[in-house]
Specification:
GO terms for molecular function: cyclic-guanylate-specific phosphodiesterase activity. The chain has 406 residues and is α/β, with parallel strands linked by helices. The protein has 18 helices and 17 strands. Bound molecules: guanosine-5'-monophosphate (2 copies) and manganese (II) ion (MN).
Amino acid sequence: MAAALAAAPDATVGLVVLRVGRLGALGAMIGYASIDEAEAKILTQMQLVLRVGDRVFRIREGEYAAVLANLRSRNHVLLAANRLVRDFQQPLLLASGPVTLNAVAGAAAAPVDATAPEPLYRCADLACLAAEREETRTALYRPEEGAVRIEHAELHEAVAGNQLQVHLQPFVEVASRRIIGAESLARWTSARLGPVRPDQFITFAERTGLIGELTRWSINATLRLCAEVLRSPEAPLVSINLSPRVLIAPGFEQLITGALTFWNVPATSVLLEVTETALMEDPERCVAVMTRLRDRGLRIAIDDFGVGQASLSYLKRLPASKLKIDRTFIMDVVGDDRGARLVHSIIDLAHRLGLQVVAEGVEDEATLLRLAEMGCDLVQGYHTGRPAPAAEVLPLLVQAAPAPAR
Ligand code: G
Ligand code: G
Ligand code: MN
């Protein structure tokens, strides 16, 4: 890479960092030699997908890079990243048979994003994290992301010192328009940086390992605030987001059950939101943990449904009770006929599997009415209530709980 950068200091040089999941599991399933074989195949395939002159490298197991010399524009590096990720939709053909892996890719380009190898790698690496949240599973480095330099110590201290806030966003039952619960969303205003966007500090926490502490904080802070409301006989639900790795981390089950006991909250009042990405990491383990949690009475929701890459076969096995359709699909419900049909089909599919459906990101009445026609059970969005400090939303939950449908 250094050579490519030095050879043409003014030309646009792209860097794609590609992360491939599930390679480790492959070893356990079909033998460790298969990892080497898969890596060799991945590098060959990457080379085939790219142009002559582009170079591919192995960084470490499961992480690869492509250096694209002489790009016509910075956007072309994102196109290359898209092609690389799309290639993983086809199974990789190993000697023992085909295996399906999944990949995300982050892209950055010199000289706009950085001019030296290290900082350019850092940009592509940051983009890779952002990519996990994108529909395409790819992302181009966004300078705003790098600009906020969260420091490990300050987020650690904020979490340890209970300086984050719990905001709640109501869930509304479509048929009755009653609030039946709320999602807990963390907010952080740092003394040094001001308000930090949640996706930024959550991503930072995920990447630095602070996510374990942050989740413990989130569970305890949410249950502490909501305990009283959640103990009422016809209690509303409160949902807590779990980052992919958290659910399958050792000790998570003790953490959640311990917190329920400590705050004296019935397990049935708590919904855990898990994204499809979690399922991709270690599906067997994920299903096992979720099943034990469900058996203890906790409810599970599949969050951001539709933008991940989870195969529909997992949907069949998951002990979830709710499916949250990602807001990117809900935006299309009015005005895009095919988009609306897709949402309608997801609702039917979920119902056939015995799941309740939550539509995320409902921003207007027209969308809510369309969703009602489609049989959607619950909505969440700016139209029915923005995320707000817990103290503002809790009174709505108290009122909501015992009231009969109007
Ligand atoms: O809160 P929005 O308002 O911007 O949240 C952005 C993202 O951050 C969402 O994907 C949400 O799931 C996630 N998020 C918010 N709070 C928490 C939390 O306490 N834990 C985890 N893991 N994710 C959270
Ligand atoms: O990934 P998750 O579903 O947990 O993220 C919830 C995110 O959605 C939060 O960032 C929250 O602020 C945001 N959100 C909630 N309602 C709406 C809405 O109606 N429109 C938009 N654009 N975002 C919303
Ligand atoms: Mn969520």
